[in-house]
Each structure stands twice: as C-alpha cells, then as structure tokens.
Design goal:
mainly beta; Jelly Rolls; 44% strand; elongated
Length: 266
C-alpha cells in the first residue's frame, strides 16, 4: 500500500524496562532520555507511581518524591524514547521552556536590540538608536567650582585646588571638603580644570590619583587650564594640586571663571 508524507526516521521501536536498585535516596539516572514524566511508568514494589506527583523527570534525571530502599522492587517501563532531534517552529519557544541562564549562553554572534532593561524590567539600562549610538547608560560625571561671591581665593604651594561646590552631575562622587573626586567604577576618566589667575605669572598644577602625581603642568598667564585622561580603578581619587602660590579669580552661577570637571568616558 502506498505511503503519503515524510518517511519515518525509524521503522520500528521497542519499549524498554529498566530495573533500578534503590540507594536509599530519591535521585536516579535513566538509561534513556525522555521528554517528561508521562513517557515512563515507575513501579515501586509493583505499585505504579503517579507521574508528576510521586516522581519527576528531566532528560535522564529521575527524582522520586520519597526515598527508595535497596530492598524495594524498583523498575521503569518506557512508554516512549527520544529518537531524533526536532527543530521547533518559529516563535514557539517561551521563557518557561528555557533553563535559567540558557538563553544568555546561546545567543550567538548577533543580537538585535534597541533597549535593554534592568533586572526589574522597568528602568532602561541601555538604549541604542538606529545609527548605533548608545544613549544609555549615562556616564558618571561631576562639574565643580569655587564657592563664594566674585573675588580672589588664595592657594599656597601644595594645596589641593579648592573646588568646593558641585555645579552639576552626581554630587555623591565629589567631596566638597577634601576637594577630591572618587571614581565609581573601573575605566578611563577625563579630568579637566580652568583657573583665572589674579595676575599674569608662571605657575604649575598637577593632577593626582590617590597620592601619585599623574602629570605636572606648567602654565604662564592669567587664564589657563588642562585636560588629562587617566585610567582608574573603582575607589581611586582624582584631584588637582598647585605647586605655586596663587590667587584665583573665582565665580559662581553663570560667572564660572574657575572650575573643574571629572567624567567617565569609557
């Protein structure tokens, strides 16, 4: 008689019986992988156990609800066997069918996403536009200035530059008493300052990371500044130190004549 349809991958199959010796525990290994509890019959002392209640199955792992002793008559009758791999239809796999961590380990080389949420599923952690520009997360930064009304603020050699007010950014990253910025994460940071000096003179200011000098900048004139890139670990402190006795012309609000900034750039 003729046959219509795809040919079967196996012409004949047989059902197997597996005898297991109890180990006093609940966990056992099957000789054949099965899809679920319904594909096997489990007997303890010739009493059939209820699938999903008295036992569960994951692949070849059989877990009994109760312990099985070595004196118990314990055996398995297979109602089905996994004979071949089957490709599921498109859009048919749900989250419930994935083991924890399985998706992240098998994403492949390309993932098409425009938004990634945080663990709560509410807040946007990363957003990417059609040009590939990452708009989130925003990089930590702080902009600081000298506090007080317009006037001169003197520093002696060896002083940390007294940027004592946060103008914008994350104020928690900057100590307005020690005048130091704390790097929140490992990365490359951009440190910048500008000073308006009371009178034209030669002067030098260094960027420090913790107690180590990163550079020594020599300047001449009334208005100058410096920009530096520095690799930092989380918890490192960045700050500027003067090697000259200077009087700075300071400003607040829109008159920010002397200011500094720190930002994570990568």
């Amino acid at each position: 008689m003729g046959y219509i349809g795809n040919s079967t991958s196996a012409s004949y199959t047989s059902l197997d019986k597996q005898t297991i010796t109890g180990n006093g525990g609940a966990n056992y290994t099957l000789t054949h992988a099965v899809a679920n509890e319904q594909e096997i019959e489990v007997f303890v002392n010739n009493v059939r156990q209820e699938p999903g209640v008295a036992y569960t199955v994951l692949g070849t792992a059989l877990t009994m609800t109760g312990n099985v002793a070595s004196t118990d008559d314990f055996y398995i009758v297979y109602q089905g066997k996994a004979l071949q791999s089957v490709v599921p239809p498109d859009n048919s796999i749900t989250n419930a069918k994935l083991a924890s961590g399985a998706a992240a380990a098998n994403l492949g080389s390309s993932v098409n996403l425009s938004t990634i949420k945080d663990s709560s599923g509410t807040n946007t952690a990363i957003s990417i536009n059609s040009d590939g520009v990452v708009y989130n997360p925003q990089k930590p930064f702080v902009s600081v200035q000298m506090d007080g009304s317009l006037g001169y603020l003197s520093h002696t050699a060896g002083d940390t530059i007294k940027f004592s007010a946060v103008y914008s950014g994350d104020a928690s990253l900057y100590n307005t008493t020690t005048y130091k910025f704390t790097c929140p994460v490992d990365g490359i940071y951009l440190a910048t300052y500008q000073l308006l000096i009371a009178s034209a003179t030669d002067w030098a200011i260094s960027l420090y990371k913790n107690s180590t000098r990163i550079n020594l900048g020599f300047q001449s004139g009334r208005s100058n500044g410096s920009t530096d890139l520095v690799s930092c670990s989380a918890g490192d402190e960045l700050y500027w130190v003067t090697f000259s006795t200077l009087a700075y012309y300071q400003g607040t609000g829109s008159s920010r004549y002397s200011w500094g900034s720190y930002a994570l750039i990568g």
